[in-house]
Design brief:
By secondary structure, this protein is α/β, with parallel strands linked by helices. It is about 45% helix and about 10% strand. It contains 14 helices and 8 strands. A 6-stranded mixed beta sheet has the order 5-4-3-6-7-8. Strands 1-2 form a two-stranded antiparallel sheet.
Length: about 375
Amino acid sequence: MDTADERLRRWRLVLGGGEDGGTGRTLTGRDADMDAALGALYDAGGPGGAGGPRKASGPRSAGLGGSAPNVARWLGDIRTYFPSSVVQVMQRDAIERLGLSALLLEPEMLEAVEPDVHLVGTLLSLNKAMPDTTKETARAVVRKVVEQLEKRLATRTRATLTGALDRSARISRPRHHDIDWNRTIRANLKNYLPEYRTVVPERLIGYGRAAQSVKKEVILCIDQSGSMAASVVYASVFGAVLASMRSIATRLVVFDTAVVDLTDQLDDPVDVLFGTQLGGGTDINRALAYCQSKITRPADTVVVLISDLYEGGIRNEMLKRVAAMKASGVEFVTLLALSDEGAPAYDREHAAALAALGAPAFACTPDLFPEVMAAALEKRPLPVP
């Protein structure tokens, strides 16, 4: 196939439309099937809409219809024709554009779907309406995504935070391989000998070895309103990773207008996720009041609030609680989102007020989160993107 013909083929697939989409290029075979799969989702009018489903030039017909078998078949088709990253985007569009959330309650559809973070968020929002016949399949889908995320994030998170904990316990008589040379040199610059072009280290500064006892306490306070679905998924996985570290005591709290402590379920992030209830209002002040009541060692505690900051509770009380926690020695971190999607819509007035208290609010990717936590544990400036 020459370059011009390939370009025309691609344009035909992009444009969709009638038999040739105005390109003079008729699709056959696999291309026709791929076009039908795209047309079922993106053609004007959509299934059941004013435009009606379009008939492709190949043997398959466009339109997802209203039944789980049709959707499951379509899900299988797009997995055949497109890479996983594209499949996940198309699934998300199908759920949002065509209102297919209810069909996710069908086991046969869940078995055909490509699991990703957004699908998990949708399933969690449907949790209370999910029939018993679907729950085990849904848990299997969620577990697959959670295991993928743990595999991607756990090792680096543990290594980064273990290093931060070691550095926060510096000792003055370290072994040679525990010496922090950068800090040792800075502390001994007054002992520089020009003739030898060297520093005589009268005082050594080293990294302490991590003790088996708990050194720090971390409280993850997670907004479970519907817009925070992806953040809830990532935060639950990170919560389980942190809980697996013996030197960090981890508490995980989710909230809307009520507050639920899921700390006792942290050994299994899937249980944590199914303990959430996405949607509803938001009362940040009430959630922070609960977290504040659980702090026993302020100077050794990090509180991470993950929220878009749309407060339905008492705004001034919320800000007073943050100020009080910081004054007591608590490291307070505000994340507008914990996901790969960038900053969401958020309450800018509340974000500015928190920044004025020394708790800047910013969106954080899962890959940056270990560095953010390491900085908080060491009480140094956060790596705000």
